[in-house]
Amino acid sequence: MEWFYDNNGQQAGPVSREEILRLIMQRQIKPETLVWTQEFGATWRPASAAGLVSPLTGLLRMSAGSSEHWAWALLVGPWLIQRLTLLILDWRQIPDSGRVGPLSVVGMMSLLLFFISFMLDRNSLRESGKTPPGFWWWLFLPGYFWKRRQIVGRGLSLLIVSLVLLAVNVTEKIYQFPQIEKELQMQHGHAEQPAPSPPSESGQENQQEEL
Questions:
Q1: Which of 26, 75, 191, 210 has a CA-to-CA distance to 55 between 20 and 30 Å?
Q2: Which tens digit of pLDDT belongs to each residue from 57-80?
Q3: Average model confidence (pLDDT) for the chain?
């Protein structure tokens, strides 16, 4: 693939991909420098929008395409953290009453990782010159990865894994319903049991006479 770039108002090139990466490393091409390759059609793009330079750091991006690293972290990271935590709690034989604190901390960590990965993946798409899916797709990840695949042109494995994980989570919830219902019935039964009535005065007098 041949690249052209703007050099003080004049068109320079063609140069190979290796050469343009070398120019970026030497800071001769900056994030705002206009570049062009055949894939861009008639439009020149800043190096940051072409996926060559990060607009945040100005550093070289080794892949001109959008990376899937943050997408996989978004999809699998929080799920793995929660699973490993449950395995550790089961291995340590910690009762349900002692799991509330650790699970709350892990839940906050998973949520933080989820949103960080989500925002970084959307930023990665922007840096590659593409418009990421809408922000509210975080509410339904299979929809997000479906839209992402349409935009990027790849990512079928991400979509399939997201659907599998969704099916696993839904199945687990269905199997947990009878246990949850049983626990609620037990709690309701305990609440309906009448409290023991205090002894009557006559009963107290009889006890005193026996003494």
A1: 75
A2: 444 454 444 568 889 999 999 989
A3: 78
Alpha carbons 172 and 7: distance in angstroms, whole number: 59
Tell me how far CA of residue 15 lies from CA of 3, 11, 48, 137, in angstroms: 5, 11, 18, 39
Place of tokens 């006890």: 207
Residue 163's pLDDT band, with cuts at 50, 70 and 90, is very high
Q: 153 burial class (0-12, 13-18, 19+ CB within 10 angstroms)? A: exposed
Contact 165, 181 (CB under 8 A): no
Q: Is the peptide bond before 14 cis (omega within 30 degrees of 0)?
A: yes
Q: Report DSSP state, residue 32.
A: T
Phi-psi region of 145 (alpha: psi -120 to 50; beta: other; left: phi over 0): alpha
pLDDT per position as a tens digit, 92-109: 788 777 777 888 888 899
Q: What is the b/e burial string over 57-80, where b = at least 16 CB atoms within 10 angstroms of the residue's CB?
A: eeebbeebebbbebbbbbbebbee
Helical ranges in 42-96 per DSSP H = 69-91
Mean pLDDT, rounded, for 15-26:
80
